[in-house]
Amino acid sequence: ISVSKVLPLVCLFRHGTAARAWRTLTTWSPVGAAFNARVHRRLDIFHQNVGLFGVPELSCVEGFEVVQDRALQETQQLVEEACRCPPGVQTVEIFDKLSDSLCRVADMADFIKVAHPDPSYREAAERTCINIGTMVERLNTNVDLCKSLKDLLDNEEIFSKLDPETRRVAELFLFDFEISGIHLDKKKRKEAVNLNVKLLDLSNQFLMSCHMPNRIEKRALPEHIHQHFTKDGNYIQIGGLNADAPDDLVREVAYKVFLYPNENVMHILEELLSCRDKLARLVGYESYAHRALKGTMAKSPGRLYSSEIVSLLTEKDFEMMREMKTKLNPRNPELMPWDHPYFSGVIRAERFNIEPSLYSPYFSLGACMEGLNGLFTQLYGASLLAEQPSVGEVWSEDVRKLVRSHLSNFITNVTCQFALFLQAVVHETEGLLGYIYCDFFYRPDKPHQDCHFTIRGGRQLEDGQYQLPIVVLMLNLPHPTRSAPTLLSPGMMENLFHEMGHAMHSMLGRTRYQHVTGTRCVTDFAEVPSILMEYFATDYRVISQFARHYQTGQPLPQSMVARLCESKKVCGAADTQLQVFYAIMDQVYHGKPQNRSTTDIMIDMQKKYYGLPYVTNTAWQLRFSHLVGYGAKYYSYLMSRAVASMVWKQCFYKDPLNRETGERYRREMLAHGGGKEPMLMVEGMLQKRPSIEDFVNALVSDLDPDFETFIMDSEG
C-alpha cells in the first residue's frame, strides 16, 4: 500500500478522535477516493503473476488440480494423525486443520466456478468442487476417524476440562458424522455416501437451470414489446421477470414465459427433494427439515408459523395496489403476482416522492464506502484501507482489494502509530483483521444476485499468529461514466451495507477454529449481522455522516431520508407475507413426503399464505434457487430479521454510533462465529431469551408506519 493512502488516515489521530475528523472532511478519504476513481488498466510486464488470491499455482488453470491434489494428500496425512492421537484438545485441532485444508480449496473453487470470466477456470473449479465434496462425504463416513473423535467426547473427565468453544466444535464435527450415517452398517453407510454424491450433482443441475432463459417464437408476442427482451433469430429469449417494467403486458409475458414449467427441471427438483428425504430418514431423522433445523434457533419445524396480524395488514397492502392498478389501467384492474413488486414500488414513489435519480447523486460508491469506513471506525475501532492487488491476484480488473485493520491496537504517539499501521498492512501483524475483495461492477458473466463468499476462514495458528480471513463481496453496480462516479440507488446502497455486514462478521470474528469462523454458523443466525446493517443504512444519524452530492458536496436533506425510511414500510406487510409463503413452502417441500407434485404443493401454499392467485402453466418453484443453499432453512431470513430488529431497537436505536454498544455487540455476537450456541449470543446481547412470539412481534412492529414522525420531518 502506498504511503499516500496511509498518511491521510493516520492524520485523523492528530486532530482528536477519528470520528470527529472524519465528519469534517471536505474531500474524499483514501477509501472514498479509491472507489470513486476510474480503474485504469496497469501494464505489469515486469511483475510476476502471483495467482488468484495470491496462490501461485492458480496463475494458470492447471493449478486447480495441483492445489486439489495437495489438499487431498494433506488430508490423508491428517486422517492418519487423528486416528493415532490420544483423546484431548489436539484431537479437535487436527480435525480443524483437516477441515481448513479442504475448505481453503473447496471454498475458493466454489467462488471461481461462478465468478471467473474464463470458462476454462470455471470448469476446472467445478471439477475441484466435486472432487473435494466427494472426499468430504467419504471422510464423514470414515469409522476410524469418527472413533478418534467419539473417544474424546465419551471421555467425560477429559472432555469436561476443554474450553466451551473446543467442546462445541467437537460436537459439531460429531454431528457431521452422524448426519452422514456413521452409526449405520457398512451397506447403509455406502448408501449414504452415494446419496450425498448424487445430491451434489442434482444441486448443481438445479442451480444451473434456475437462471437459464426460456424462449418463445417472436410471432407469439405483440411486436411492440419485443424491444424489452433479447432477440434470438425467430425467437425471443426471456431471462427474468422484468418486475420493474411499467407495461403490464411486458410483466405478464415475462412472468408466464420465464416461469413456464420445464419437465426436465421438474424431475431434477423432485429427485433432489426425494434424495434429501431418503438421506434424512436413513440417518434417523423424521424428515429432512428435522435434520436441517437441528442446532438452529428454531430447533424444529413445528415451531414455525405465520402471523395472522401480518396477513391482515397484507390485505390492506393488496387493496392499495389494486386501487393503483385500477387508476393506471382501468381495463385490467385484477391484481396478479407479476404486479406486486411493481405497484408496491409505484405506491412508494408516489406517496413519498422516492425517485432513485434524486437520491443517487448523494450515494456515490466512494461516499458509501467512506460511510462504512466511518461507521466501523466509530463502532469497532476498525478501518478499511484500499490496497493495489498484485498481478494475477484478482479475476477482473474492476475488483478492488480492501484491508481491514483494527485501530485500537495503535496507541502511543503519532509517529509510532504510522510505523505500526504501515507495518500491519505489509507484514500482517495483529493489527490486521483480514482482506475483502470487492467485485462491485456489472459483468454479463457474473451471478445476478448480490452475494458474499468466504474464501478462507480465520483460525488460531500453532505459532501464535492468526490466519486472516479472506472474503469476496459481489454486487452488480453500474460502471462509472466520464462525468460521474458510480452512483447507487437507495436499494443498492442498502444492499452494499447488507453484504458488508457479512464481511464484518468474518473480519471481527476471532474464533480459535476455522470450522466456526465468521459466517460459519447456523443459518438462522448468519443473516443477523447483515440485516442489522440495513437498519444503520436507513438511519439519518448514520446517513448524514457520508451522503453528500458528488458534485456540490451538499449533504442529503433530512426530509429526504425521512421519506425514504417511511416509504420502506409501505406494502411491507405484503413483502413480509411473500417471504412467509416462501418459507412455509420450503418447509413443506422438506417435510413429510406428499403424494403430489411440487407444483400442486406450491399452488396450495400460495392460496393459504400469500393471497394472490396462481397463474396456470407456471412453476415458480423451478426458479427458487434458494432451495439448494437454504433447503428447509429459508425461514432464516425472517428469523434473522426479527433478531436484528430487536437488537437495533433495544441496543442501537438511541445512539447508533456508540462505541461502547458496538464493542458489546462485537463481543457478544460477532466474535464467536458459530463457536457458541446462537440463542446464547442473542440472549447475551438482549439480556433475555426471546420466544417465537417475540420474533413475530418484532417483525410486525417493523411494519407500523410512523406517519406522525414522517409528517413532522417532511414539514420541517
TrEMBL record:
One of its GO terms (cellular component) is mitochondrial matrix. This is Mitochondrial intermediate peptidase. CDD domains: M3A_MIP (cd06457). Cleaves proteins, imported into the mitochondrion, to their mature size. It comes from Cyprinus carpio (Common carp). Its cofactor is Zn(2+). Keywords: Acetylation, Calcium, Cobalt, Hydrolase, Iron, Magnesium, Manganese, Metal-binding, Metalloprotease, Mitochondrion, Protease, Transit peptide, Zinc. Residues 244-402, 424-699 form the Peptidase M3A/M3B catalytic domain. Belongs to the peptidase M3 family. One of its GO terms (biological process) is protein processing involved in protein targeting to mitochondrion.
